[in-house]
Amino acid sequence: MEGRPKARIESIDLLRGVVILLMALDHVRMYFGQGTWWAEPTNLHTTTPLLFLTRWITHFCAPVFIFLAGTSTYLYGARQQSTGQVSRYLLKRGMWLIFLELVIVNLGWTFDLTFSFRFLQVIWAIGVSMVILAGLVHLPKEATLAFGLVLVFGHNLLDPIQMQGTGVPALIWYILHQKIVVMFGPNAVVYFHYPLLPLVGLMALGYVLGSLYRPEFGAARRQRWLLWTGMAAMVLFLVLRGLNLYGDPNPWSRQLAPVYSIMSFLNTTKYPTSLHFLLMTIGPALVFLALTEGIQSRVAGVVLTFGRVSLFFYLVHIYAIHLLALVPLEISGRSWSEWIITAEEFTGGSLADSGFNLVVVYLVWALVMLEMFPLCKWYRAYKKGHPEQRLLAYL
């Protein structure tokens, strides 16, 4: 029907596939790198340029996932009969993702059947953002755009507000805008890892961007919009960051070595996601969408396989990496149970002395991707062949 975009936009799936590759690298580093979870690869006093780059390149993952989730929502909504259908879908999918984060994803990260240590990470952030977007879709597109811009560009004004304790106001603030680990007891720890304010705004902006993919907008015009918007975001990042202006609580500074000065410049704040961080990551992502529309190659086809089943990949690869991490512990004579991350283990950090160099990390990453490719290819084919199974739409 005229005015309705295609069900799948290959450049979007391609970008999603690229960030999946990067995301898997970061998660392998967390389980296999020296210092594992307790390492700080962006600490300029202890890191190396390659370790910093290995971590920095993965910064694109979370914001791009969240931004594209908004775009995909617009594309889904454009094919439905009513806004109410879209709103109900977002509400159900958002609640489903929150459940996945709190149960399936948390178990995959920790292998702790007591759930004494809980993360609130990217799937949680996408889920809550979708619940909020379920209300925003009823508003004019201009209002949603304004909402997103205010949160993305204005949330850093709230950086000075810091709370403590476990009272209701403090907990609400942790969810909205303060990264913190909260101990509710010796066996009850919650890591508020992805504060929501900037990410909710980011999904709203991604939703508005989806309107560029209406057929009547035209491919050439869309590519110009994506290219110039992405470049404008990158230039704004360079100006704000270069002059240490508003938009990040962590200013950069000149270091003794030029490479470390560059690292300081790029070392923007991820939790909560700063304006500098978002401009640094979303700008290149928009340029990528502009330049890859219509691209076809064998490599692109492989990456698309991952991008088309991103949630399935996310859920499975965490368990695959965590299971692989048990092997070197057993070989070295340590108990595999040390990789059960309970509240006590997380706060104690007994595995901080383990791990391998980056050569091993990259080799394990390649192994994980080789394992995941046939699984993703199979699942994609199964999902396409069984459209009657509605649950598959949520994976």
Secondary structure elements and their pairing?
Elements: H1 10-32, H2 49-56, H3 61-77, H4 83-110, E1 117-120, H5 122-136, H6 141-154, H7 168-177, E2 180-185, E3 188-192, H8 197-209, H9 219-242, H10 258-266, H11 275-292, H12 298-307, H13 310-331, H14 343-348, H15 358-385
Parallel strand pairs: 1-3
Antiparallel strand pairs: 2-3
Helix pairs in contact: 1-3, 1-11, 1-12, 1-13, 1-15, 2-10, 3-5, 3-8, 4-5, 4-13, 5-8, 6-8, 9-11, 13-15
What can you tell me about this protein's structure?
The protein has helices at 10-32, 49-56, 61-77, 83-110, 122-136, 141-154, 168-177, 197-209, 219-242, 258-266, 275-292, 298-307, 310-331, 343-348, 358-385; strands at 117-120, 180-185, 188-192. The mean pLDDT is 91. Helix 1 crosses helix 15 (358-385), helix 5 crosses helix 8 and helix 13 runs antiparallel to helix 15. Strands 1-3-2 form a three-stranded mixed β-sheet. The longest helix has 28 residues, at 83-110. A hairpin with a 2-residue loop joins strand 2 (180-185) and strand 3 (188-192). Helices cover 62% and strands 4% of the residues. With 395 residues, it is mainly alpha-helical. The protein has one domain (10-394). The two termini are 26 Å apart.
